[in-house]
Amino acid sequence: MSVPSFPTSLGTSTADEIRLLGQDLTSLMGRVSFGELAFWLVALRRPTPSETRVFEAVLVALADHGFTPTAIAARLTYLSAPDSLQGALAAGLLGGGSRFLGVTEDCGMYLHAVLASRAGALPSDSDDAGWDELALAAVRETRAEGRFVPGLGHPVHKVADPRTAALFAIAEEEGLRGPHLRLFEAIGRVHSQVLGRQLPLNGAGVCGAALADLGLPVEMLRGFALLARAAGLLGQIAEEQRRPIGMDAYLTVDRNAVYVDPQA
């Protein structure tokens, strides 16, 4: 009877060797950064130094944003089950959805769809007016469909998200300000003509645009946001060990709960 085989381009091991991405693992240790490896594992190609810089800038931008719902979920889960570090970490990651973290993927996919629909007819890099025209058409179409443009607005940063300009600048410095970033930047310039108010381009959205410009699959972008946030959540849990706030958060809500008659 033949033994089945299971093909993989990632990791394999024998009794005396571990191979990863076709390399001896020990040859990568100390020579490849974790961010570079994460990119390589998904794209199955080693990123250039410029790509690594932009990619790792995105990871830093998404790692932590204070007491967000994901951080609170991790801390309260740790309060309930301090014997389950993995549970607390997982609880925080499970909160990465359409309102928090998931915007990275939503924005990348939105921009990618707009660009794909105009394939072969994109403005040149220096044609800001052309990008504005494309962005305006996209925002109008999205509004007419009753949908939101992902990546616009932020619950805390009402005027400007400080991560946005920094990521645009890093991508420009590395020659990686591609069509997704250019379209997103143009949306920032023109959306008020349709929506009637000026909203900031948020950091999660620009991260999605930057990742898409790196050629990473847009359906995987949320995974990179979660990868970044895992580091931030680990820091949140470590701080919960040193300086706990979970019990205070729980008691504040619990002791101020007010019964409301459902028929009132």
Characterization of the model:
The protein is mainly alpha-helical. The protein has a domain at 103-217: Cytochrome p450-Terp, domain 2 (Orthogonal Bundle), CATH 1.10.230.10. It contains 13 helices and 3 strands. A 3-stranded antiparallel beta sheet has the order 1-2-3. Strand 1 and strand 2 form a beta hairpin. Helix 6 (103-117) crosses helix 11 and helix 7 (128-144) packs across helix 9 (179-190). The N and C termini lie far apart (71 Å).
Number of DSSP helical runs: 13
Largest beta-sheet characterization: 3 strands, antiparallel
What do we call the CATH homologous superfamily of the domain at 103-217? Cytochrome P450-Terp, domain 2
CATH level 1 name of the domain at 103-217: Mainly Alpha
Task: Name the CATH architecture of the domain at 103-217.
Answer: Orthogonal Bundle
Percent range for β-strand residues: under 5%
Q: Radius of gyration from the CA trace? A: 22 Å
In sequence order, what are the helices and strands, one letter per element? EEEHHHHHHHHHHHHH
Strands side by side in the biggest sheet: 1-2-3
Oligomer: single chain
Overall number of strands: 3
Q: Termini, distance in Å? A: 71 Å
Low-confidence runs:
none
CATH topology of the domain at 103-217: Cytochrome p450-Terp, domain 2
Instruction: Specify the overall morphology.
Output: globular
Share of helix, binned: 55-70%
Question: Taking all residues together, what is the mean pLDDT?
Answer: 93
**Structural class designation:** mainly alpha
